[in-house]
Write a structure and sequence with these properties.
Strand order of the largest sheet: 11-12-14-13-15-16-17-18
Order of helices and strands: EEEEEEEEEEEEEHHEHEHEHEHEH
Radius of gyration: 21 Å
Distance between the termini: 47 Å
Mean pLDDT: 93
Number of strands: 18
Largest sheet: 8 strands, mixed
Structural class: alpha/beta
Number of helices: 7
Strand content: 25-35%
Length: about 350
């Protein structure tokens, strides 16, 4: 019966732990970012109400006598670097990410061995509903990156990426496309030490190795294994949070490979915030040439993540001052969490490959 969601989006949680001394609940932005104490009843159940949770998907967990444990009443997802419980708060009037009675694509596991990292890697690959019916057709590709603490399953499981694409394609709002969701962590096999965590320095270091994996392994492997259109005009790259930063660091350095870019709550890197004219070896210095080559620069954030909203506004203005075209979108009432990024994907993909 628990967790329960009330009509006002309060969440009732309960955990049976008769011998525990103290139990708390905590979750991500938009749910319960600070630990909330539970109260023990006579039956040994610990109870609490999380008031007014935000819409969409949220991670959460219990802290039992100082030990973090997942709620046995919920599914687990890969978040915060480990299996973590999650809950979906209904969003009245929004069903763009729900399964509907339309043709559905497939999400396939694509394994390959990386010589750069010395390890097996797995990418989840979405193929559109028509893919197997038209064996001579070729498709553009969106490379879609996850955030820190998550993995290649996040966009499918937490993000409902396939339902979003299925619905958009069925409504003819998006062109049929392949979506590649690879693992966002990469350490060179000869590296002395692996990045220790999710600091900006660690993520930047991983992005340097991941760049080589994408350029030399992922993209060639996908072009060989799937019926892609292997041209820059038919490739896009987008990512959320850490994945947005990786899109900036990898994609902007390789405009010969991509024509469309999406930054979903992503840290803006490479000097754009300081002096965009010198960022990425002067990629923005020739505005006319950049606008002809790059078909889309798309920035998004949730209204509740004020740091990223400011970053989007500042970046868009600085690029506009140089004559660089871009589009921004702010998801109202959402935070640094999956409902923000679902909305981003829903707004971004209809603009691709037109």
């Amino acid at each position: 019966d628990f967790p329960k969601i009330s009509l006002d989006n309060s969440v009732y949680v309960r955990l049976m732990a008769r011998e525990a001394v103290k139990v708390q609940v905590q979750g991500g932005d938009g749910l319960c970012p600070k630990p909330l104490d539970l109260v023990k009843d006579t039956a040994g159940n610990w109870n609490a109400i999380i008031p007014s949770a935000g819409p969409g998907f949220h991670y959460y967990w219990f802290i039992v006598d100082g030990v973090r444990v997942n709620d046995p009443g919920s599914d687990t997802y890969h978040g915060y670097g480990r299996p973590t419980g999650g809950i979906e708060i209904p969003t009245p009037g929004e069903d763009f990410f729900h399964p509907k009675n339309v043709p559905h694509g497939d999400v396939r596991e694509h394994w390959y061995f990386s010589e750069i990292t010395g390890k097996w890697r797995c990418a989840y690959v979405y193929t559109p509903p028509e893919y197997d019916r038209y064996p001579k057709s070729r498709y553009p590709v969106l490379y879609l990156l996850h955030g820190a603490g998550e993995n290649e399953r996040g966009w499918s499981k937490q993000g409902h990426m396939s339902f979003i694409l299925d619905n958009l394609i069925a409504e003819k709002k998006a062109v049929p496309m392949i979506v590649v969701m690879d693992n966002g962590y990469a350490t060179a096999k000869n590296a002395a030490t692996a990045p220790a965590g999710f600091s900006m320095r660690d993520m930047t270091k991983m992005a340097e190795t991941l760049e080589q994996v994408y350029i030399k392994e992922i993209i060639p492997n996908i072009d060989l294994s799937y019926r892609t259109i292997p041209k820059r005009e038919s490739r896009a790259m987008a990512g959320l949070s850490m994945g947005g930063m990786q899109t900036m660091l990898i994609g902007m350095n390789h405009q010969e490979l991509f024509s469309y870019y999406g930054f979903f709550s992503g840290a803006i890197m490479g000097g754009i915030m300081d002096d965009p004219r010198t960022a990425f070896n002067g990629a923005f210095a020739d505005a006319k040439g950049f606008n002809e080559k790059v078909k889309l620069m798309w920035f998004g954030a949730g209204s509740g993540e004020t740091q990223f909203v400011k970053m989007v506004d500042d970046t868009k203005k600085k690029l506009a001052d140089l004559g660089i075209k871009s589009i921004s979108y702010i998801s109202q009432g959402t935070f640094h969490e999956w409902h923000t990024w679902r909305r981003h994907l829903n707004e971004f993909t209809p603009l691709l490959f037109r």
